Amino acid sequence: MAKITLDNLAHSYYPKPKDEDDFALKELNHDWADGEAYALLGSSGCGKSTLLNIISGLLHPSQGRILFDGIDVTHASTADRNIAQVFQFPVVYDTMTVRNNLAFPLKNRGADPKYIAERVQQIGQMIGMEAELDKRASGLTADAKQKISLGRGMVREDVNALLFDEPLTVIDPHMKWELRTQLKSLHHEFGHTMIYVTHDQTEALTFADKVVVMYDGRVVQIGTPQELFERPQHTFVGYFIGSPGMNVISADITGKVANLHGTSLALNRGYNDLNGKVEIGVRPEFVALTKSDGLPVNVRRVEDVGRHKIVRADLFGNEINILAREGMEISPDMNRVTFDPEHVNVYVNDWLKAGEVA
């Protein structure tokens, strides 16, 4: 296992980048703790796979360094970094049996045959393929081959890090849940440093100790699922995490009052001298639909999703979402909303402002 440090790291696919927009990865300076499980989360093209490939050694950064436990490995090969990587699509040896595919990384390093047999059996059980261990990989389905890839990545116990690049894309939904659970069990048992790339927030939030949210080549927040939900540091985190995501509404703010199209909204913190694009952010969970109090809204539709209802509404020309508890009756005269002041965040140019508590 290893602590991974990104030191002044950036990457451009252009040979002579001219400005920041030419960089797929903007400058990163982060420490990722030894033995923790991280998820790299963001939309397509945000730089997740680029960063993962730099960490693994498949790609050399345009600037900066990668350190494992303080040792510079920027120019080290993938093999010398002692990592295991699982890719989005299955990479298996079709002419080998499942057993020999799983055993290959251990045989390659001269492990004891008895240990290899025991470890392969253990991993075969973990990925649900004990019955197929002696079958050739060539006759198996794509999701079965991807399970072999996952197993081969997990079979070694001595790696510095396990890297997963959207490994469950071809796996059926039920097996995805089981494999994520197995990955978490493996992490708790052996304490590997794990980095898991995904654009699926459910995968990220159920797998990781900490989620690394990326947007436009930057890491915009690293935090626990609870931190990302309650205090998004960037508006992208707010509307990418959560279903539906955070409501973001333009506002003029002076002191502890937000002005929305001539209507005042009290805030729990004070803000002064805010320059730039000023917005408030509040999650649908902290918005309440009422008959008489709060701001005027126009309800467009109500979606019953079982455990709760999602109310889609317009607030001063902004689309907002409201979560209503299961069984709550929503009548035509419920045309106002209130926000829980404790959960109203203020953003300037998309970044969270802390504010002052009086």
UniProtKB/TrEMBL annotation:
GO molecular function: ABC-type ferric iron transporter activity; ATP binding; ATP hydrolysis activity
Superkingdom to which the source organism belongs: Bacteria
PROSITE patterns attached to this UniProt entry: ABC_TRANSPORTER_2 (PS50893)
ABC transporter domain span: 4-241
Keyword Cell membrane part of the UniProt annotation: yes
UniProt keywords, alphabetically: ATP-binding, Cell membrane, Hydrolase, Membrane, Nucleotide-binding, Transport
This enzyme's EC code(s): 3.6.3.20
Top-tier EC class: hydrolase
One GO term describing the cellular component: ATP-binding cassette (ABC) transporter complex, substrate-binding subunit-containing
InterPro entries: AAA+_ATPase (IPR003593), ABC_transporter-like_ATP-bd (IPR003439), ABC_transpr_FbpC (IPR015853), ABC_transpr_MalK/UgpC-like (IPR047641), Mo/tungstate-bd_C_term_dom (IPR008995), NA-bd_OB-fold (IPR012340), P-loop_NTPase (IPR027417)
Family affiliation: Belongs to the ABC transporter superfamily.
Protein name per Swiss-Prot or TrEMBL: sn-glycerol-3-phosphate import ATP-binding protein UgpC
Name of the encoding gene: ugpC_5
